[in-house]
Amino acid sequence: DLSTIYERAGRVHGRNGSITQIPILSMPNDDITHPIPDLTGYITEGQIFIDRQLHNKQIYPPINVLPSLSRLMKKAI
Questions:
Q1: Other C-beta atoms within 10 Å of 54: how many?
Q2: Where is the ATPase F1/V1/A1 complex alpha/beta subunit nucleotide-binding domain (predicted)?
Q3: CA angle at residue 3 from 72 to 44, to 5 degrees?
Q4: CA separation for the pair 77, 14 (Å, rounded)
Q5: Least C-beta-crowded within 10 Å: which of 14, 18, 33, 40?
Q6: What is the DSSP secondary structure assignment for residue 1, as one 8-state letter?
Q7: What is the DSSP letter of 64?
Q8: CA pseudo-torsion sign 31, 34, 40, 43
Q9: What is the pLDDT along the chain (77 residues), one digit of tens a residue?
Q10: Where are the domains of the chain?
Q11: CA-CA-CA-CA dihedral for 64, 65, 70, 73, to nearest 10
């Protein structure tokens, strides 16, 4: 499953350490309700939603904060 793939990323036998992973997903028709981005947001610490419409309006960075999410946000606010 996807979480197992993420957990194995960067693992080196006999060595300790960690890796920062930034999965970048592109869904057909920008569908964020697709199971892959939904599952990835659940597995990782959050998602940053890059909005094509904001980009087309030349708003940079084109981050749409409403559909973006973070597990750490509640502690920060």
A1: 15
A2: 1-70
A3: 15
A4: 40
A5: 14
A6: -
A7: E
A8: positive
A9: 777 887 787 788 888 887 787 888 888 888 878 887 777 777 777 888 899 999 999 999 999 998 888 877 777 66
A10: 2-76
A11: 160
What DSSP assignment string belongs to 9-60?
A: TT--TT-------------GGG-TTSHHHHHHHHHSSEEEEE-HHHHHTT-S
Q: How many CB atoms lie within 10 A of CB 41?
A: 21
- Span 1-17, pLDDT tens digits: 777 887 787 788 888 88
**Cα 73 to Cα 77: distance, rounded to the nearest angstrom:** 6
Distance CA 56, CA 62 (A): 9
Radius of gyration of the chain (CA): 15
Counting every residue, how long is the chain? 77
Q: Are 32 and 67 in contact (CB under 8 A)?
A: yes
Q: State what percent of residues in the chain have pLDDT above 70.
A: 96
